[in-house]
């Protein structure tokens, strides 16, 4: 060993690795850009936001719920990555099947073998076309995932505004 006051700060002791890095290839003295996710900036009070957009991500579980409910994230459960890929596919499929009609985020619930998809739709299409798209979606996704699938929709006249920021 060597003393603490020699200006090396323990880099040769082995726990810092080579060249002053922490063994992961990152330099602890290099500034890291700060990133923030899913926050809507407060403006002049003229920007309409939904309930999901109004609350920051750290309020998940306190003021708002998760948009994907399943047991894959529990301790010891396998398949969390597969559920994330399936969720991404389902959301893209629904945005493509109902173009411009989805008014808020889609909520996915897995209850045993049943897949329940909840969404808010705008009233831009006549009811018979929406019924066709619902049947098409339920049939196609039930065959694709080989499990029963239910689509729970609520129609709204316009975008649901929670508050203005």
From TrEMBL:
GO terms for cellular component: mitochondrion; ribonucleoprotein complex; ribosome. It comes from the Eukaryota. GO terms for biological process: translation. Keywords: Mitochondrion, Ribonucleoprotein, Ribosomal protein, Transit peptide. InterPro entries: Ribosomal_uS3m. It is found in: Mitochondrion. Belongs to the universal ribosomal protein uS3 family. This is RT24 protein. It comes from Formicarius rufipectus. The lineage of its organism: Eukaryota, Metazoa, Chordata, Craniata, Vertebrata.
